[in-house]
Amino acid sequence: MRVLIVESSPLYREILQQSFNRFRGVDFVLSATRMEALAEAAAQMPDFVVISGQLSDSDGVSLGRQLRCDGLVPIAPIVLLTGSPSAEMAMDAERAGITEIFRKQDLDELVAFSRHFLDAQQPLRCRILYVEDAPEQRLALAAQLREWGAEVDAFASADEAWPAFLRADYDLVVTDIVLGGHMTGSRLINRIRRQSAPKGEIPIVALTAFDTPQRRVELFHLGIDDYVAKPVFPVELRARISNLVARERAEERSHKLLQATELGVTVVDEEGFVLSMDHNAASMFGIAGDPGGRNFANFLMNERDGAKCMESLCWLIGEQDIQRLRFTGRRVDGRVFPLQLSSLEIEPADGGRRFALLTRDVSDEQALADQLEVARDSAARLGRMKSELLANVSHEILTPLNAIVGMSFLLKQRGLTGDAREQVEHIDAAGHRLVGLIDEILDFSKLESGKLELESVPVSIDSLLAGVAAAVENRAAGKGLSFRVEAVALPSDLLGDPVRLSQALLNYASNAVKFTERGSVTLSASVIEDSESFCQLRFEVRDTGIGIAPEYLYSIFDSFCQADGSSTRRYGGTGLGLAITRELVGLMGGEVGVTSTPGTGSTFWFVVKLARAGVPCAALPAPVELPLDDIAWHFAGKRLLLVDDDQVNREVALAMLAGTGLQVDMAENGLEAVRAVRERDYAAVLMDVQMPYMDGMQATRLIRTMPDRAGLPVIAVTANAFEGDRQRCFDAGMNDFIPKPIQARVLHSVLLRWLRIGRKATGHPLARTFLSEI
Ligand code: ADP
């Protein structure tokens, strides 16, 4: 294509050239003046002309007029570019034959216009059925259309053309109206339009010599798409053909796109009767042939009665633009499938309302959702099974551990000496390691299932640091490490969960001692931010130990992660401690972190925000120093019932109670316990939970129904270590909870408390927080 640009400013000429450069196959002819432009137009016959509104030797409109008048540019578009077109100039330009005026600042519009023009200049690339009975006209026009790139089947009559139309696929029909033979052009158009889509919807251009307004209206009623009066001006026909073909192609493209979306389109009237259905919808509902006359409600499943379906359909189409409702679709062969349905009102063609119902078969999505549901259920079931397994396994491990830890405690009390003492101490340490391990696994499982809840009670950071220090100091000293606690003055009105805070810090501190062979371990707490409502604290444990290689640092807080697989064997451990710390601190809304240099040492830290109570928290009750002596002093001779099915555990408990002066009766299961309680008046009952014949819960429930036994202190002693177990004991009417393996100090303290409360207890868990206090 040749573009003539007439512009005096070299810079703007360059800009225009650049704008056109985005099209392929464009040659430029550049002129700066009217005179140059006239000479170039005469020599080059441009296909497109762009003229500046103001030239050095003329104005653009006059040049345009002259190009048209002199026949230099008879048909090609001439566009004018101007700064600000006035109404007068627009009128003048139109009279001069200028196609369009663009503002210089709206070059994009000029480019869009040119693109459209260029598209129309492309080879026609379509197949045309052409009917014309005048032989010269037929030959000449067919030849011209072929030259423009079209494939043309030309016929002298409609009778000959009709079978060809039925046989082949055409993009367009161009037909004369007045034809010799049986079939006129009008009849041909009529027959074409009676065909079903897509054949019946082919674009038709009519050619006729009798060009009156009435005639044109008639032809449009017949169903033509466009009209050209004879004698045919080929360039005009070409413009009309490209227009129709371009529109047809655009429609085909959207049709293909729609088909690719697998979205079915059904057009219905306001009562739901199907007017048309596209290929996707027809195959979705299994319809072969014409779907007309059916009601769309028939494609929806309704188990109860058809009327309901009709109602919901009418509601659906009455409501405009309903989006993605779920129905059960029904194919004509009776098979059902999950269906997503949207509706929108479309242009009414004959006064009545029409709706497009867009349907999608969502079987695949549904199947995926079902699979997910099954997977979720089985994950939940597995989770429950895992919890049950953990509960059972830990119960089974803790019961013999109770015997091991209890017996070694009793042996140590006997004042053994020499090798025997050392060996018992090894047994005791091993037992406690196992208890710690089980605690860690249970905590991890609780955190993993989101079942761990934090307390918010007064917490003294000083006592917390002291407690953690006391727990690791001896081990540090044993390795020859210096152990320090650094803490500035800390607020005394903080609220938090002291047990879990200690646990987080203790994990760090134990690791620091474990992984340090020489040097020091330092524990510190400092205030980062302090306000009236909260205080942000940073806890830190620094050591001069083996350190951690950089590649392990980013994952060291992940569960089961150990910096070096071989450390498991050298130092032991599960790789759960840091993961538990991270989860606990996360639950408190805080953050954890570590910096470390291999061979030099590590600093593990966490930051938490603790609420401030506003008033200093009351000092914690002074720990009971010698509960055993207190029991012996105040309650010797009182009678206690000890219920446990395991003989060794009974012996352990009995031995721990030896110095109390209490008279201890024993029962081996719930049944025996109930009988004993009915017959005797006890000061308290120590009740195992899992026992044969009747468990501790059932026994307690029965005890609570007895007259005068509502206030009898019943204390659960159990290896059931889950949070829910504790609650279940309280729900069954027990007053307190001692976990196995029993620690003598805990047993004595709890017992002393309940002996003191005595019959005033009402079966309520008065001492729920008691364990955390001792
Ligand atoms: P465990 O100590 O039971 O293996 P942790 O989660 O507490 O589990 O620690 C995970 C790993 O992190 C340890 O095995 C060790 O490799 C590394 N680690 C933790 N603390 C330290 C430390 N203070 N110095 C060196 N390595 C450490």
Please give a structural write-up.
The radius of gyration is 47 Å and the shape is elongated. It is α/β, with parallel strands linked by helices and 774 residues long. Strands 16, 17, 18, 19, 20, 21 and 22 form a 7-stranded mixed β-sheet that branches. A 5-stranded parallel β-sheet has the order 2-1-3-4-5, sandwiched between helices. The chain is built from 26 helices and 27 strands. The model is unreliable at 761-774 (pLDDT under 50). It starts with a strand and ends with a helix. The longest helix has 51 residues, at 363-413.
What class do helices, strands and sheet pairing give?
Answer: alpha/beta
Content of β-strand: 15-25%
Sheet with the most strands, sense and barrel status: 7 strands, mixed
Distance between the termini: 97 Å
Question: What portion of residues is helical?
Answer: 40-55%
Number of helices: 26
Question: Mean of residue pLDDT?
Answer: 86
What is the general shape?
A: elongated
pLDDT < 50 stretches? 761-774
The total strand number stands at 27
Q: List the ligand species.
A: adenosine-5'-diphosphate
Radius of gyration: 47 Å
Give a summary of the structure in a few sentences.
With 774 residues, the chain is α/β, with parallel strands linked by helices.
Name the descriptors.
26 helices, 7-stranded mixed β-sheet, alpha/beta, 45% helix, 5-stranded parallel β-sheet, binds adenosine-5'-diphosphate, 774 residues, disordered C terminus, 21% strand
